[in-house]
């Protein structure tokens, strides 16, 4: 940078010749020689400082990049930790849902039991009704037997009335009043027979209607039985649901256990990264040398030494 | 300290100094270099033995701005002043450093109450500032000043080529402090710092930043074309980061090899950033506030404003408001320079000043 006194500087020749020239310069201009040497040393020193500064800056940049990566990684791991937190929260939420399902199933089962009780009571009622119909059938049979007796009495009465009429006819004029009575008795017998037939027809109709009703009750009873069986199956299904839901507790516990173990690992990694980032930061802080004055200091030194060189050149 | 002013558009010294009496020091500026020698001699003749320095550039006193003839700023009352010159300023100003030491001794230099104000020849600024600050900083004295738009400067009636003329002020009534006003700010987001990896400070040339062509870095960072680089410096000059401060470097041009030439050299290993225009009204207010906070009611401020700053303020129709704002708070005078000096640094596009308590 400085040269060796411009006009006094010699061109370089062989090593031996240069040495001779140096010695000649030294003998002739000792102060100039010393200053020129100082200039060269400063130039080399400045170049060395420059290269070191560049290396330091490169290292500093790399370290800052690494530190930045660490910080980013810490951020990612924090996000992972947040993810674990979300999983745990989801598991907790699932637990809440499970409790709600359990509650709903219990309520449904309660309602189902009540329905079953009501259905059983209804089935009992149907059975009682069937028994009542059987009793009704018995009563109707008794009526039918009684009617048969009445019908027989009516027939015999009619026969008696006929015989009485015959006997009245034999009696002639004297039997005329008796014939009227016999005719009336015959009419009564006929009326009794007609009534028995009417009652019998009514009984047949009652029987028919009762049988229809009985069939309907039987069908309802069977349907109720099916319903009860269906309710029992549904109840068992609810039991299964309850059992299935209660099984998720174990899954949730397993998730929480795994999450907790992973979180512990993540924290260990985070701590490790934090410590490493801290070390990098410490190194960067220690490497944070104020380079801004180096150029100025070298400039100042060069200015001074150049002035010294100029003054030496003025010496006679 | 108090200012007294005078000017002459025709360059008549008698006219310019007619209202000046009993000055302790005289600072003058002339519109062109050919007026410098005569003006210096006539001022010396008018006020023999009074410390005086001068250079070439526009001047301002309170709300007035002078870009023709000569302007003389007299400083008086409660100050002791010595003026001298460092010759061979671009080569070996250190040879004359005794003059600086003697000037400090002459005023009875006292830390906090003594400061230097300099005007140097164009092109001599780097070495002049380095040499001045080397002594002044060690002694604990502030420096402010600027670069004359000429190869010569005047001191005590004589004109010197390649020189640095200076005042050493001692305020007998309080402190003197230097200030630097930077209207450019660091980008608020994603600020990048670029290390100068190849440069030729002697040619004021930055070849590479972070091993990439300076032109490519600058144009790609700002998204501009190569032909816009020179004018872009008004909006986006380089900022040289040193310690915790930032010093502006104006861009002069761009070379065929992708180098960027500047008005202040950058050295290999300097850290540069690309600055943006800040709210200059607010910055000016902040400077006034800082001076008031530090010095209470400052009696006077002697400043150098960069030519680029003057051009920019003028384009923004703010220059007159700027002078009015400064003069509202204290007596303010100075000149427009082609480089500014602040303690250890030679800077561009800046205002540097000495404020007297």
> How many distinct helices of chain A?
4
Radius of gyration of chain B: 20 Å
Give the proportion of residues in helices of chain A. Answer: over 70%
Radius of gyration of chain A: 65 Å
**How many β-strand runs of chain A?**
0
Assembly state (oligomeric): heterodimer
How much of the residues of chain A is beta strand, in percent? under 5%
- Strand fraction band of chain B? 35-45%
Detailed description of the structure:
The complex is a heterodimer of chains A (316) and B (357). Chain A has 316 residues and is mainly alpha-helical. Chain A is rod-shaped, with a radius of gyration of 65 Å. Chain A has four helices and no strands. By secondary structure, chain B is of the alpha+beta class. Helices cover 25% and strands 39% of the residues of chain B. Chain B contains nine helices and 28 strands. In chain B, the strands form five sheets. In chain B, strands 15, 16, 17, 18, 19, 20, 21 and 22 form an eight-stranded antiparallel beta sheet that branches. A six-stranded mixed beta sheet of chain B has the order 1-6-2-3-10-11. In chain B, a hairpin with a 2-residue loop joins β26 and β27. The longest helix of chain B is centred in the last third of the chain and has 16 residues. Chain B starts with a strand and ends with a strand. The mean pLDDT of chain B is 95.
